[in-house]
Structures are given as structure tokens and as C-alpha cells.
Design goal:
The structure is a homodimer of 285-residue chains. The first copy, chain A, contains 9 helices and 8 strands. Chain A has 285 residues and is of the alpha/beta class. Chain A is globular, with a radius of gyration of 18 Å. The interface between A and B is medium-sized, with 30 and 30 residues.
């Protein structure tokens, strides 16, 4: 699958440059996603609690990093977790089995653009860190709206790498962040999608769209967050695209490493790192 | 006063390019500051309430745009409001007289680096949108710490133009924001100061530094905020440096206007605009 394919790019399909999921599918990446989810659980899931018995779809559950937190916040829901990667889905299943063995979860292997469920199958749909990887998020939202009952809610959480704000502000550090944005765009995604959730959801026919911003702010007063977010989530994500960035001719290995070294200084004493997530909730009219 | 002066640049001294207060002192600017303060009052002042009888210094009160809100949140304080501009101070005095005629306010015309008050004169110091305009904010913080009693608190609120995040993301729009940052730097200030409040306060000898981020998010769901923040605060601030940006050779009038037109689209249906303020509270040990 390439970015010139006119059809919607599948969720997290393929690895590496020019394909859906820019961060790849390595064990390191699966661990990074788990670290990220644990760190951000409060930020992402606060305010999302579905009543017991609700039919909930998590579209693009990946390795289940968010699934376990969703089940923590909404015990007793009837969850369907869908992903296009069979390998990720197996990891998600194992994670949920270990974390919430009694949870009622159906696992669906497939493309979220072509879900086999009848119209109005779900009361709520939850989508976290997925739209940013899609070539046509509007098409995905339309497909999700079809399976959501009228009056049901859609919740979408996405980042926006343009909100990364750090001190010291090194030029090489800013460039590696820009490379990540560029690689994701080359793969058909949009690492700056947070800022446009509001019009995306409205254009897809949802109503009462409300977007809230949730900022991670890591400095010397929050050493655990510096470790878990700045180092193990953000910088780890940047480091993971080193080979792709060099292969794409965006930078040299040396320049890339200089950028990462500058980013690391934001996690040292006196440094600060801030990043904003966008959480949108909307209703299917 | 120029940026090559080795002494600390005074607060809001002078107008235009190469001098302290990048936004100037026009009636339009005074009105913009009032609009901005009213829009952001909750964001800026929430969490700041000093007990009646507290000796409070507002350093750099300008035209009193924040002063009236400070007095609303902390009735009964003994306020000293200081500014280097006699004209601004007169406006602040009139504003407070109209808004809070019974308030106990001493007005001080002078440089916050050389306040004539004895050591430990105040229980609390409040500084809002001031450090960003100073050539040496560390020196200012040291001068403020001298007049703050041990155990007293310092509150600092600043913006950071690097957090401006908008959709549609036009290149010309991003450039005019960058010009504003550059002009403020040429004047000896730092429009990206928010991200470094944490180390600045720590290095100045304050303890228990806690920085919270407060984001304005304006989209179609919040039309009043689109009008008051995106249009009348942020875009108005950008437009006010048009002549300076052209005079400095950063841009042409035509290119600048294209950038402003792109920024205006973020305030139209489907557009979004986000900006983050940094609020730091710290203790004088």
C-alpha cells in the first residue's frame, strides 16, 4: 500500500517509511506504547466512563495499551476491540487477559473503514491515537458513524507534534521533531491532526463537537513525568524513526543524533518539555 | 535605551522596534490589553487569591488590565502597583478608580529593577505579561525577591508564542507569528519565555516552583472566544507590529498582510486557534 493509493489507507498497516503506522511494530514500540498509555491514562481517559452494559467499540486498539485503561474506567461494558494488525490484536488480547480477565471483549481483526457490523451496532465509539495514521480520516469517521447508533457518542484522542514546546530550544531538536511530522505525512498520516479534530468531526456529520486540550508538562518538579513522558514516550518515539529519516534523505545520522542529544537536554535539570493532546467528544445525531 | 545597553532594560520603556515594549502604547493597544485581560481573567487569576490585609506588589501593572481582576479575586489586600510608564500608570489608576473605587492601592512610578521599598516589604508579588519584555528577567526576579518576605509567594504569568497552534496552518501565518517573536527578541525580550519560567525562578533562588499550563482553545463551539481571543487579542497583537516588521526588513507589507489574512481564516468556520499560558507560583525561602 502506498500513499498514492486512492482508497483509504488501512489503520497501522505495514511498517516503516511510506506506510501507515510510522512508529513500526517492534517489541520496543509495543513497550513504548504501554509506557505511554500508563503515563497518560489519567490525561486520556478522565471524563470517559461508559455505563455498564453499553456496547462500546474501540476502533484501532493496537496492542491494547489504551484498552486496559478503558476497561478500568468503564467496568461492565460490552467491548468490541478492532485492529487491522493480527499481531497487535494478539498482544492486546494477552494484555487484557492479564489485566482484566473478567472483561467482556469481542476481538475483531479488520479494517475500520470496512467494519462488518450492522448500522447502529454501538452506543459509543472510542478512538485513540489512530486518525493521525490514516490517509483519509474523514472516511474513517464516516465508517465509524455508520455503526454508531443515533444519540451515541464518539470520543477521539489525538496528539499534535506542533504543540511540542521545550527548553532549551535547540534548532537540531526542532528539526528531528519536524522530520517525524514529515515522515508521518509521507506515510499518508498527519502528526498535526489534533488542531483539526473540531472541523473533521463536524464535517463527518457529528454534532455537539467539544474539543478539550490536555497538556503534559514535564519539568524538574515532576521527575517521574520527565522519565516516563519526555524520555520514554516522546524522545523514544523520535529515536525510533532515525533509520527512516536518514533513508528518506531528510537528515544525516550525525545531525539526527545531535537533535536527539538536544532533546535529551530538555529532560535534564533546568529543562522543560510540554505537549498537548486533543480530546474530542461528539454525538451522532 | 537599546538592546546593547548592559543594564537591565526597563519594563515597557519606549515604543516600537528595538525598545522594551514591543506592542507600543497606543490607545488601540490599551484597549487590546483590556480586552485580553477580560477574556483571560479566569485563566490567569484562577487560583490566585490573597488574604485580606496581605501586602501585595503588582510589578509592571501597565494600564491596570490585570490589576482590576487581581482586586476582584483578592478584596481587602494592601496593593502596591508599580510601572515604569507614568502614562500607563495614570490609565491604571483611572481604571481601578472606576472598577474598584474602595480598593487600597499605592501607585509607584519606577523601574522594577530598582524599587525603593525596604527588604521584605511584601507578602506576595504578582507579575503578569512583564518578564517577556525584559532583557534580563533573572535580574528582575532577584530584585523582586529582595522586597518579598521569606515565606512569601511569587506568581508569574507569561505567554509563549511558540505554543500558538492553529488550523488551517498557513505558512505565511506562521511567518508573521515568527516575526513577532523576532521583533520582541530584537527589543531584548523573549516571546517564548513561558517554557523557561521553571528554571528562571529556580535559578533566581525561589523554591517550590510549580508551573501550570493554561490553554485557550477557540473554535466554532466557542464563538465568543474566537472573537475576543483569536481576533481581538492574538491577531490584533500581530497586526500591531506590521510597520515594525516591514521597517526591520523581515517581510513586505504584502506578505505580512497575506499572513494576517491566513491567520484570520483560523477564526472562520472550520478554523481553530490554541494558545498556552504558563502560570508559575514559587516561594521565597
Amino acid at each position: 500500500m502506498t500513499t498514492s493509493t486512492p482508497q483509504p489507507t488501512a489503520v497501522r498497516a505495514g511498517t516503516g517509511l511510506g506506510h501507515g503506522y510510522v512508529h513500526g511494530y517492534s517489541p520496543t514500540e509495543a513497550r513504548r506504547l504501554g509506557d505511554q498509555a500508563d503515563t497518560l491514562a489519567g490525561l486520556v481517559h478522565t471524563g470517559t466512563a461508559y455505563p455498564p452494559g453499553s456496547r462500546v467499540l474501540e476502533a484501532g486498539c493496537g496492542v491494547g495499551a489504551q484498552t486496559v485503561h478503558l476497561l478500568d474506567s468503564s467496568p461492565g461494558v460490552l467491548l468490541t476491540a478492532a485492529d487491522i494488525s493480527a499481531d497487535s490484536l494478539a498482544k492486546a488480547r494477552a494484555r487484557v487477559a492479564a489485566h482484566a480477565p473478567g472483561a467482556d471483549v469481542r476481538w475483531h481483526h479488520g479494517d475500520l473503514h470496512r467494519l462488518p457490523f450492522p448500522d447502529d451496532s454501538f452506543d459509543h465509539v472510542f478512538v485513540c491515537f489512530v486518525l493521525e495514521h490514516l490517509a483519509d480520516p474523514a472516511a474513517a469517521l464516516a465508517a465509524l458513524r455508520r455503526v454508531l447508533r443515533p444519540g451515541g457518542t464518539l470520543t477521539v484522542i489525538e496528539g499534535d507534534h506542533g504543540t511540542a514546546c521545550f527548553h532549551p530550544l535547540g534548532r537540531a531538536a526542532q528539526r528531528v521533531v519536524d522530520h517525524l511530522v514529515r515522515l508521518q505525512a509521507d506515510g499518508g498520516g498527519d502528526a498535526l491532526i489534533g488542531r483539526r479534530l473540531y472541523p473533521l468531526l463536524g464535517d463527518a456529520g457529528f454534532r455537539d463537537v467539544a474539543v478539550g486540550l490536555r497538556t503534559v508538562s514535564a519539568d524538574g518538579a515532576r521527575p517521574a513525568l520527565v522519565e516516563s513522558f519526555t524520555r520514554r514516550t516522546f524522545i523514544a518515539m523520535v529515536e525510533a524513526v532515525r533509520a527512516d529519516a536518514v533513508a528518506a534523505g531528510l537528515t544525516t545520522a550525525e545531525e539526527f543524533d545531535r537533535g536527539v542529544a538536544e532533546l535529551r537536554r530538555t529532560a535534564e535539570p533546568g529543562g522543560t518539555f510540554h505537549y498537548t493532546f486533543f480530546k474530542a467528544v461528539a454525538v451522532n445525531p
